TrEMBL record:
It comes from Dyadobacter linearis. This is HTH-type transcriptional activator RhaR. Keywords: DNA-binding, Transcription, Transcription regulation. Residues 187-286 form the HTH araC/xylS-type domain. It holds the Pfam family HTH_18. PANTHER family: ARAC-FAMILY TRANSCRIPTIONAL REGULATOR.
Length: 292
């Protein structure tokens, strides 16, 4: 299986492929495929990177990954701990948008859905308030076969196309131009950053991982993520800090700072506020209020 481009096993007699997966963790490398992927995270948590987008994903969330959009659902570290076995449960629906648009969606009644499908390049996250209806329809797609599955799938696309405030997963189409060699390099970079965020990572160190000079690395990383190396690393750390705060397993915000790789709590507070829009304490208070 290639790191960047691989083929979803699509039966010749099927337009839609449904996979109900229960695994120790998500596929652990940056990859892409020509099919659009609808992903319901039934159970699991970690960091989602899609194009130049990154945030934590949690159980119950629904995402649409665009055709040929480079992405990785990076499971939390705890999923790789053999001493405490965990699992992820996901439902994935794959379809070829070109094939679908040329056939089923070519009907005049499908104009709205066809426009929606043609705009899926950067992917979306479904708003939390719309999840239950979408999940019900996904279950129908899973349960039905043949023409009934197609009908349920069209209903699912209709729900998506009429949902307001879908959250885009990326702001750039630059990932479509990434070659396989570049994809392998970006995967090595992401794997290293996500695996070593608790430690100090120098520009020289990460440049060596990418086999580039520091100056060339900065240009390369910015080109493919629309972010600087430092801002991307800080996002990884802040995403992990949110997880720690929600878990309640810390002795103070200086402890959260230490656990997530920041050199001091002042810098941590500044970066957290800039990234999340709230201070760590405000974030914790808002989370606890939502719990009721």
């Amino acid at each position: 299986m290639k790191v960047v481009q691989f083929t979803i096993p699509v039966p010749k007699e099927s337009t839609i492929v449904v996979q109900d997966n229960i695994l120790p963790h998500y596929y652990n490398h940056l990859h892409r495929h020509r099919e659009v992927q609808i992903e319901w995270v039934v159970e699991g948590s970690g960091i989602l990177i899609a194009g130049n987008y990154m945030q934590r994903f949690e159980s119950g969330e629904v995402y649409i990954i665009g055709a040929n959009q480079s992405h990785i659902f990076k499971s939390d570290e705890s999923y790789f701990n053999a001493a405490e076995p965990k699992q992820v449960h996901s439902v994935s629906i794959f379809f070829d948008p070109i094939h679908l648009s040329q056939n089923i969606l070519s009907l005049p009644e499908m104009t709205g859905i066809r426009k929606f499908v043609s705009g899926l390049h950067n992917g979306f996250q479904l708003p939390e308030g719309d999840n239950e209806m979408i999940k019900t329809t996904i279950r129908e797609v899973m349960q039905h076969k043949e023409s009934q599955r197609v009908a349920a799938f069209i209903s699912l696309l209709h729900h998506f196309s009429t949902t307001k405030e879908l959250k885009p997963l990326a702001t750039s189409n630059s990932e479509h131009r990434i070659s396989e060699v570049e994809g392998i390099r970006m995967d090595k970079i992401f794997q290293y950053l996500v695996g070593h965020y608790k430690s100090h990572i120098s520009l020289a160190e990460i440049s060596e991982i990418a086999n580039l000079t520091p100056q060339a690395f900065c240009r390369y990383f910015k080109k493919h993520t629309d972010k600087t190396f430092v801002s991307f690393l800080n996002e990884v750390r802040i995403n992990e800090a949110c997880k720690v705060i929600v878990s309640g397993k810390f002795d103070g915000f200086s402890d959260v700072s230490y656990q997530t790789g920041f050199d001091n709590v002042t810098n941590f507070n500044r970066v957290f506020k800039k990234t999340i829009g709230l201070s760590p304490r405000e974030y914790q208070r808002e989370f606890l209020e939502r719990l009721g």
